[in-house]
Amino acid sequence: MNKKIRHAFYYTSALGVYEAYINGKKVGRQILAPEWTDYDSHVQYQTHEVNHLLREGVNVLGAMLADGWYAGPIWSHPERGGYGFARKFIG
pTM higher than 0.85 for the full model? Predict the structure, then answer.
């Protein structure tokens, strides 16, 4: 029973900033998501409709991750690692 996928959504987030990819193509239009986040109170996530990026058979997920607001120095935490050091991509 093969059914065609009409809508596919990819929910992504990170401790740090990221860009996500499916089959080598960038997911969404954001650069270094998820913008500024107060990690003491919440973690943002993004929802992307990705049906156009999927192909029949095997698909490949990838991401580039950097310190960003989470592990990099910011004005309220001048030393690196203000919120932590263990960057993580969630996708």
Answer: no
The rounded distance, in Å, linking the Cα atoms of 61 and 55 is 12
Q: How far is 21 from 11, CA to CA, in rounded Å?
A: 12
Tens digit of pLDDT per residue, the chain (91 long)?
Answer: 577 778 999 999 999 899 999 999 999 999 989 888 888 899 999 999 999 999 989 999 999 999 888 888 766 666 777 777 778 888 8
- CA-based nearest residue to 12, from 50, 41, 40, 56: 50
- Separation between Cα atoms, residue 83 and residue 68, nearest integer Å: 11
